[in-house]
């Protein structure tokens, strides 16, 4: 079956402010009862996370009473330069931040278009290591760092701060907007995926 996740990524937080923003958001989530204060073994890919709190149902569209019985049901916070992705599948296209030309990344059978992927592969892979490799647009011939391109399906998000909710029902749009507000009004991307 796999595990479902939703990650709210702050795409504007700097490395210097990410830890403080994470602490502020965690304080809010704990104080309002969305998550529990205690860190436990309730998330994938990390040593500990925060299990759903008594009011988690107010953050989601359709609360699931069985969530408490799922082992991987917590919130994991990632602080540090990271390429966040949606897990399975591929993004369908990417759009130039200068001229808005869209480049398909998969064909009609959802197979990757190798020529287009080759433009981005190294840049995406090296972003987490601190590199801002520019990628040239075949339409306008201008370059832009890989993290400024617009990825269809919100497949990739590049940032220093992300909040991953494991197996929670769909987050309410109002909750996501409030999240962004509490991150100083930063632009956020909501990735949804499955492992």
Question: What does this 3D model show about the protein?
Answer:
The chain folds into 2 domains: 4-82 and 156-194, no CATH class; 90-154, no CATH class. With 195 residues, the protein is of the alpha+beta class. Strands 4-10-1-11 form a 4-stranded antiparallel beta sheet. A 3-stranded antiparallel beta sheet has the order 6-5-9, with no helix packed on it. Strands 2-3 form a two-stranded antiparallel ribbon. It has helices at residues 18-31, 114-127, 173-182; strands at 4-10, 35-40, 49-52, 75-85, 93-95, 102-104, 134-136, 143-145, 150-151, 156-166, 188-194. It is globular and about 50 Å long. The termini are close together. The protein contains 3 helices and 11 strands; from the N terminus they run βαβββββαββββαβ.
């Amino acid at each position: 079956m796999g595990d479902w996740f939703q990650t709210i990524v702050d795409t504007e937080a700097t490395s210097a402010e990410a830890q403080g923003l994470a602490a502020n958001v965690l304080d809010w989530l704990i104080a309002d009862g969305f998550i529990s204060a205690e860190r436990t073994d309730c998330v994938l890919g990390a040593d500990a996370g925060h299990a759903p709190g008594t009011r988690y149902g107010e953050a989601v569209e359709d609360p699931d009473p069985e969530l408490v019985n799922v082992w991987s049901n917590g919130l994991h916070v990632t602080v540090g330069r990271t390429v966040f992705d949606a897990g399975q599948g591929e993004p369908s296209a990417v759009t130039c931040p200068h001229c808005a030309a869209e480049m398909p990344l998969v064909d009609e059978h959802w197979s990757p278009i190798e020529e287009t992927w080759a433009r981005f592969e190294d840049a995406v892979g090296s972003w987490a290591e601190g590199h801002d490799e520019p990628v040239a647009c075949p339409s306008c011939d201008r370059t832009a760092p890989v993290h400024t391109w617009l990825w269809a399906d919100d497949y990739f998000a590049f940032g220093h701060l992300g909040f991953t909710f494991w197996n929670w029902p769909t987050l309410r749009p109002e909750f996501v907007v409030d999240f962004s507000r509490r991150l100083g009004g930063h632009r956020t991307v909501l990735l949804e995926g499955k492992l």
